Amino acid sequence: MNTLGPGWEEALRDIPVTRKEALNLLVIMKKKLLRAASELTFYKERITILQDQLIHQKRNEEKLIRLQAEFKSQSLDIDKLAKKSSRIPLLEKTVKQQEELICRLETLLEHQRKQKINANLSNYAVNINRLDNDLLEPITNYSTTNSHNFNPTDYITSTTLRNLSSENDQLRHTINELNRTVCNLAKQQDENNAYHQTIEQRYREEIDALKEQQNRLEEEAKYKNRRFDQIENENYRTMLADTERLELYKLLDNAELRIKTLEEELERQEVRVPRNPNDVGASRKSHLFKEPAWKYSGPSKVPLGTSDIYTRKSLEKSIPEYESY
Question: Domain coordinates of the chain in residue numbers?
Answer without folding.
Answer: 17-133+167-264
